Structure formats: structure tokens, C-alpha cells
Amino acid sequence: MSFDGYLYLIDGATGCAHTVDIGEASYAAVLVDDLGGDGMLDLVVATMNGNIYALGTAALYHPLKTWTSQVQATNGLVARSNYFGAFATLQSRVARDVAGQSLRVAVEILDRRAALAPDGRVANASRGGPYNLTVVLRGVGVADMNAGDAPIIGVADAFAAPGVHILELPCPKSRTTATVRVDLVDANGLHFQDEFALSFHVHFHKLLKYLVALPLLAMALVALAVAAPLAADYEGAGYVSLGAARA
């Protein structure tokens, strides 16, 4: 975005530019994310007049393509797509209500930076670890964080190689929402992060109806199973008595 009222879309490979006339000046960075959940990236433009515009694009969504704040992390200032970073997989970040004692988050570490040998040649396709990975819940109350045998403070681990790694962290004990934040710090101190939102135990009533209905249904089936032989015995005894009385 530029102060002249235009949004400039620039192809880094060819230098070709396309402009969109917003008509309002802006100093803010353009934010990029999937706002509608349709799998496509959207642009968010804020102007000096206090207006916010959302522009749809034809670019496919990927967590490493998003740009959700002016600075990606404490020192993250470069594009990460198809190059270097960590993100929760699409299956882990699906918007849902989590019910249970723990949450499993699959995190993919991508590192396609070339490592150089002392003579300047490429030694391997990736620099390698260690990759220090942390997954925490943000926005959870203090009471929930300190409840139970496993406080909700997040989990951390170090991995020697890129790939998909699964971390499991305790869930809140009460109904709440939280932001799951994934933090990656490499051996050189480069910091990357990814975030997505989930709810916890908000729709617990959907499980409660089964807890109430299933025991009653089971008791009814047991009663019917026990009553059927007894009814047959009574009918047989009554038939014999009636036949004896007629005789």
C-alpha cells in the first residue's frame, strides 16, 4: 500500500506491477490471510481515514503464505512460503470444538535453505537442526492453567530434522476459547510462529444428551430381553391350566 492511494501488486520475478485504486492514503502493511475460510488468500488494507478493505484473490491459501501482522515474529521479516518455517497442518488447524483432556497438534517444519561446505559448494539440501518447537495456548484463564496434574503451559521439544512432528498438550478444564500458537526457533535464533483458534468444551451439551439417553436405552433393552421369556412362560402356563380345566 502506498501513500498515493494505490495498492501496488508487484511480481518479484518479472517486476511487473498492477495497481488498485483504493482512493485513500495508507502507511500500514497489507495483511494476508484466508478470511472467509474458502481456501483462498485475502488482502486486508487499512487506510489513514480509518477504513478497512478486504480484497479477494485467486491465490491458494497456505499457512506460510499468510502475513497476519507487520512483523511475523520477533525477527521474522521475510517471506516463508516454500522456503523455511513451521506451521500447524491443515488437519490440526480446522476450526472445531475440542472435547477431551489433550490436544494433538501436528506441526510441519520446512527448511529448504542450502547448507554450504567450507569450499563453498552446497553440502546438502537443508541446514538441519536443532529446531526448537513450542506449542502453547494463549487466552486461557489462570485458574485453568494451574488446574489439575498437568498445568496448561504448553509443550516444547527439539527436533534434529524437518518434517511433520506431533506435540500433545493438556486441554482447559472448562468451556473456553484459545489461540494455539506454534513457535519455532532454529540454531541461529531465527524465530517463526503460526497461530489458529479453537474452542474447548463449548458444545459439551451435545455429548451430555448421549450420556443421559444411552443408559436409559440400555436399561430398556435389558428389560425387554428379560421380559420376553417370562411372558412366554406365563402364556404357556395359562394355556395348560385352561386345557386342564376344560378336561
UniProtKB/TrEMBL annotation:
- What positions does the domain DEX1 C-terminal occupy? 85-201
Which keywords are on file for this protein? Membrane, Transmembrane, Transmembrane helix
Show the stretches that span the lipid bilayer.
210-232
Its GO CC terms are:
membrane
What is the name listed in the Swiss-Prot or TrEMBL entry for this protein?
DEX1 C-terminal domain-containing protein
Membrane topology field: Single-pass membrane protein
What InterPro entries does UniProt report for this protein, alphabetically?
DEX1_C, FAM234
Which species is this UniProt entry from?
A: Monoraphidium neglectum
**Where is this protein found?**
Membrane
Highest taxon listed in the record's lineage:
Eukaryota
